Amino acid sequence: MHLHSQLSKVYGPVFTLYFGMNPLVVLHGYEAVKEALIDLGEEFSGRGSCPVIQRASKGYGVIFSNGKIWKETRRFSLMTLRDFGMGKRSMEDRVQQEACCLVEELRKTDGLPCDPTFILGCAPCNVICSIIFQNRFDYKDQIFLDLMERLNENARILGSPWIQLCSSFPALIDYVPGKHKKFFENYACMKSYVLEKTREHQASLDMNNPRDFIDCFLTKMEQEKHNQELEYTVENLAHTVLDLFAAGTETTSTTLRYGLLLLLKHPEVTAKVQEEIDHVIGRHRSPCMQDKSHMPYTDAVVHEIQRYIDLVPTNLPHAVTCDIKFRNYLIPKGTGILTSLTSVLYDDKEFPNPEVFDPGHFLDESGNFRKSDHFMAFSTGKRICVGEGLARMELFLFLTTILQNFTLKSVVDPKDLDTTPVVNGLLSVPPFYQLCFIPV
């Protein structure tokens, strides 16, 4: 049980915690979270402070920016990530291609026990590469491996207690050596790669046929060049691209890895998904997004994986954009807000026995998919995940393509598999495990 669950039992759905000198208002439970992020969406749409990251991103990009630059960059990113934002290839086409490569890579394990972490990290990272740089990389490409390693290391650093401490006492960042130095170094390295790629794109840009995200941004820069605004600059492009990388790689990869662990633990669930795949898709064509509406059980399983793993338990920090009265508390402008997504995803009125993995949480009596407004795995409101559509597509297509081609075999008795997350600052990460991918 999380600390804030225990505190809310004592202090109710709204209470303040102090981190260093900074008050953080914690919102617990569906009603309070919904009231803030949806009903008062504009007022609660600020991004709370993360000194280490903000020092790196300088207020640019889409995740840690605020105000006008955030609104404009977010609008552009959402439009570009829509299905046919870029040239002729749809998002779905890119994800399907990667799903095929993923299956080929899993075949090479020859049904021997393996730790799926690396391969499941490559696939989402490559989807982002395809969207940003137009092409995917081979899983053995040194540039690709370097990019993944730096992303990975930065995700680990951000989850470390040291960074939590730097957030409370930002002075440490300047005066104390520590992991944040490595974070800045990795960030600078990735940024210079993106800038190098951007120069190549500028040289070969055809504004009438943008190939990828960078082309779309450069085209927009050209159209906006007479506006004396700061949103469309090469600098903002670089930070936005790094945001998409950081947010789109580790999250999807961890969800896939945790998802496979849960499927190993619950073979009866896996069998029902495979039965549905056989019935709706068969063996002879790749799964596509149109299949999802005919596969309520599989859809429920993907939702339940996301609900159960509770990937980002306390969301990313929000902040209020003005002084606001909320449930009789006066919250001054700029105050940090933590919304407990756990308290929504594990609400026992909406999801009876929430601590049990059960796809029935998203099915009605007749076995149809049941939508739930408590499904806030991507957060909600004005800061809801920009990549939500892409992530849902990846989870559905990757998981169905894997289960279409392989039987999952556990190395230990499924009863002995542990599915409790390993504590990590930002994300809930599954414990280490191995499995065998037996070709069907």
TrEMBL record:
Underlying gene: LOC109553199
Sequence similarity: Belongs to the cytochrome P450 family.
Gene3D superfamilies assigned: Cytochrome P450
Protein's name in the database: unspecific monooxygenase
Chief subcellular location: endoplasmic reticulum
Enzyme type, top EC level: oxidoreductase
Compartments reported by the entry: Endoplasmic reticulum membrane; Microsome membrane
InterPro entries, alphabetized: Cyt_P450, Cyt_P450_CS, Cyt_P450_E_grp-I, Cyt_P450_sf, Cytochrome_P450_fam2
Source organism (scientific name): Bos indicus
Keywords, comma-separated and alphabetical: Endoplasmic reticulum, Heme, Iron, Membrane, Metal-binding, Microsome, Monooxygenase, Oxidoreductase
Statement: the UniProt record of this protein carries the keyword Manganese: no
Known cofactor(s): heme
